[in-house]
């Protein structure tokens, strides 16, 4: 029996109660004993019951709360904590409390009786909790689009992730990189999918080879360090590494230090100096030109089998935060403004709940490029 064919009567028969008892238990109404209510909800979840479209359109009494679903990795990433604080602050401005859902989410029927709406951040198409949340019978706003097969949300707030990685790749090549690499996140979120696709499309459009390595969505600094060592050992000509996962940039810096690759400066040109693309091409005219030339990159230099060429390495990150700002050297990064993003997601949900905005609304969220010493001399922030 699929979730589309399960009815209230099916749940009633399986739980050994009446259809009206099932309805009251799932909606949190009526005089139903707590033990019966829990049993009915457990049976409904086991059978995969989902409210039908007519039930979803019924007007509900306000609970004064909204739910927030974050990726399972959220508890150790600064980005999601800042986003959550922003969302809580904005929801409170409309008199709504924020309920943080467990990583596994909750059965749609159960959570719908406790909240007026839901925020689902960076939904993965492989996250088994997401379809139930999207079909819970309350308005749902996603942070980034949902690429899975379930029905769409009531609204979404999105960043132009392709544009942000394009800006990073353009920046490192303007600073002299000829063989950039991207440590892209695994997974099926819109953010991860966009970064992997953009790495390839950017390289094809500009005729510049981009080395793509996939790392965990929430890669630790140790995992980023191992991936960078492996990357530079396999292709010592790589002269710029853009790491995607929040907080992973220090691992790239450690790998560069261990391999004798100075970060953010050209070999022998002094601290903070970085060749332009034209200067880099000129300096290598007698030492193997082209994308595959040994020692390609800002400043050139020979390469050994373990990637310890001594050639400079530019480092950047797709997510700004404490780890990038406090690194040595500080790391160029895309500031996604997570607290403001959380506020924007909560604002859209509040507007939909209050009838100020129509469902199916999609709003954009701006980012900025913060240029720091890891890619050379500082410059004014860039952004869309």
Helix and strand sequence:
HHHHEHEHEHEEHEHEHEHHEHEHEE
Strand order of the largest sheet: 2-1-3-4-5-11
- Give Rg in angstroms: 25 Å
In angstroms, what separates the terminal alpha carbons?
A: 48 Å
Which descriptor suits the 3D outline?
A: elongated
Computed structural class: alpha/beta
What is the number of beta strands?
12
Strand content: 5-15%
As residue ranges, the low-confidence spans are 53-59, 266-297
What is the tally of helical segments? 14
Helix coverage percent: 25-40%
Instruction: Report the sheet with the most strands, covering strand number, pairing sense and barrel closure.
Output: 6 strands, parallel
Task: Provide mean pLDDT, rounded.
Answer: 82
Oligomer: single chain
Question: What does this entry look like structurally?
Answer:
This protein has 384 residues and is an alpha/beta fold. The protein has 14 helices and 12 strands. The strands form 2 sheets. It has a 6-stranded parallel sheet with strand order 2-1-3-4-5-11. Strand 6, helix 9 and strand 7 form a beta-alpha-beta unit. The longest helix has 17 residues. The radius of gyration is 25 Å and the shape is elongated. It starts with 7 loop residues before the first helix and ends in a 14-residue tail after the last strand. About 10% of the residues have low confidence.
Q: What descriptive keywords fit this protein?
A:
single chain; 384 residues; alpha/beta; 6-stranded parallel sheet; 6-stranded mixed sheet; 14 helices; 12 strands; 38% helix; elongated
């Amino acid at each position: 029996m699929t979730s589309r064919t399960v009815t209230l009567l099916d749940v009633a028969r399986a739980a050994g109660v009446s259809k009206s008892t099932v309805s009251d238990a799932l909606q949190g109404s009526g005089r139903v004993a707590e033990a019966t209510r829990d049993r009915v909800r457990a049976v409904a979840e086991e059978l995969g019951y989902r409210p039908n479209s007519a039930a979803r359109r019924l007007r509900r009494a306000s609970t004064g709360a909204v739910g927030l679903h974050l990726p399972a990795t959220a508890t150790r990433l600064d980005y999601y904590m800042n986003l959550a604080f922003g969302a809580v602050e904005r929801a409170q401005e409309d008199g709504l409390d924020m309920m943080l859902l467990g990583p596994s989410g909750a059965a749609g029927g159960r959570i719908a009786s406790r909240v007026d709406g839901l925020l689902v951040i960076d939904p993965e198409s492989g996250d088994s909790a997401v379809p139930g949340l999207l079909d819970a019978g309350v308005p749902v706003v996603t942070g980034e689009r949902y690429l899975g097969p379930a029905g769409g949300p009531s609204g979404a707030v999105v960043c132009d992730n392709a544009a942000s990685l394009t800006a990073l790749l353009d920046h490192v090549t303007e600073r002299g990189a000829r063989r950039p690499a991207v440590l892209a996140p695994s997974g099926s979120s819109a953010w991860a999918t966009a970064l992997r696709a953009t790495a390839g499309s950017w390289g094809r459009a500009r005729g510049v080879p981009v080395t793509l390595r996939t790392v965990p969505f929430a890669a630790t600094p140790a995992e980023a360090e191992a991936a960078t060592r492996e990357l530079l050992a396999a292709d010592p000509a790589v002269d710029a590494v853009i790491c995607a996962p929040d907080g992973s940039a220090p691992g790239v810096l450690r790998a560069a230090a261990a391999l004798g690759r100075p970060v953010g400066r050209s070999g022998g040109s002094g601290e903070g100096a970085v060749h332009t693309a034209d200067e880099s091409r000129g300096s290598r005219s007698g030492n193997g030109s082209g994308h595959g030339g040994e020692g390609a990159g800002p400043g050139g230099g020979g390469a050994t089998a373990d990637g310890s060429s001594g050639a400079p390495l530019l480092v950047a990150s797709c997510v700004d935060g404490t780890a990038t700002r406090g690194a040595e050297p500080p790391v160029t990064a895309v500031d996604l403004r997570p607290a403001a993003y959380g506020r924007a997601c909560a604002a859209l949900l509040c507007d939909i709940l209050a009838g100020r905005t129509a469902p199916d609304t999609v709003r954009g969220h701006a980012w900025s490029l913060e240029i720091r010493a890891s890619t050379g001399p500082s410059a004014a922030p860039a952004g869309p």
